[in-house]
Amino acid sequence: MFNRIRKTNNEFDQGKKELAKVFFELEEFEDAPLKMALSTYESLRESTKSSEDFFYYLIEDSIFTSLYATFYEKIFQAIASHPERALDLIDSFSADVDEREQIIATQTQHHLNFVENYGMCNGCSSCEFHQDVAELISYYQRGDINFFTELFLGMQTMQFAMEYFLYDYIPSNPAYAKLCGPEYIQYWRELIYNYCKVKAREL
Fold first, then answer.
1. Which pLDDT band holds residue 1 (cuts at 50, 70, 90)?
2. 106 in a domain, yes or no?
3. Helices (H) and strands (E) in the chain — how many of each?
4. What integer pLDDT is reported at residue 129 of this predicted model?
5. Is residue 1 part of a domain?
6. What is the rounded distance in angstroms from the CA atom of residue 156 to the CA atom of residue 48?
7. Residues in Cβ contact with 199 at an 8 Å cutoff, skipping those fewer than 6 apart
8. Cα(24)–Cα(122) distance, rounded to whole angstroms?
9. Superkingdom, according to UniProt (predicted)?
């Protein structure tokens, strides 16, 4: 039994190393995930007319990309469960982009209203998920732009990395499907977010 446990742990550790390698390999690309996130951040800052607008859109985009990450988690979980259907699942996910982004945009607006109203909601279709963003209220009340900068860069980088992994890495090497389970993706998210927190403090 203990040998089986050690083998499982060794496989998990090896999988984490492979995912870490993928991310830091992506960071060597000309269009690296963090580089694109920083570019998006600068574009947002330059396009807003005031610091208040910038803060508002920083929160809105952070919520949007956070919600988008949950959809990536679902497709990765589906691939892990059905690796033989990976390409079909990816094609279906790609085809649903417009519908998915409309759903996310609606949920984002509902969650943003909830945060702006300090946790009050008169009833909306996203009520059951408001607790997912409740922790943002205190940062919003304090006007903590550093927190939302970290969140924005972390979630943007995560989305770009997940996009690369889904559309480029898995189709070219189906063996990556074994790294799509929830425990692997949770590790990858934490790795990317912690990396971005450090980089955000350098701004």
1. very low
2. yes
3. 9, 0
4. 84
5. no
6. 18
7. 34, 153
8. 44
9. Bacteria
13-35 average pLDDT score: 96
Q: Tell me which residue range forms the domain holding 186.
A: 31-200
Share of the chain above pLDDT 90, in %: 84
Work out the average pLDDT over 83-109. 96
> How does residue 199 score in pLDDT terms, banded at 50, 70 and 90?
confident
For residue 184, tell me if it sits in a domain. yes
Quote the pTM value: 0.91
Nearest to 134 by CA among 152, 149, 121, 125: 121
| Euclidean distance between CA atoms 12 and 42, whole angstroms | 37
Q: Name the domain count of the chain.
A: 1
**Count of positions (residues) in the chain:** 203
List the structure tokens of 19: 């995912």
In a domain, 111, yes or no: yes
Of 17, 29, 59, 14, give the one whose Cα is nearest residue 161: 29
Q: 156 phi and psi, to 5 degrees?
A: -65, -45
Q: What pLDDT shows up at residue 74?
A: 97
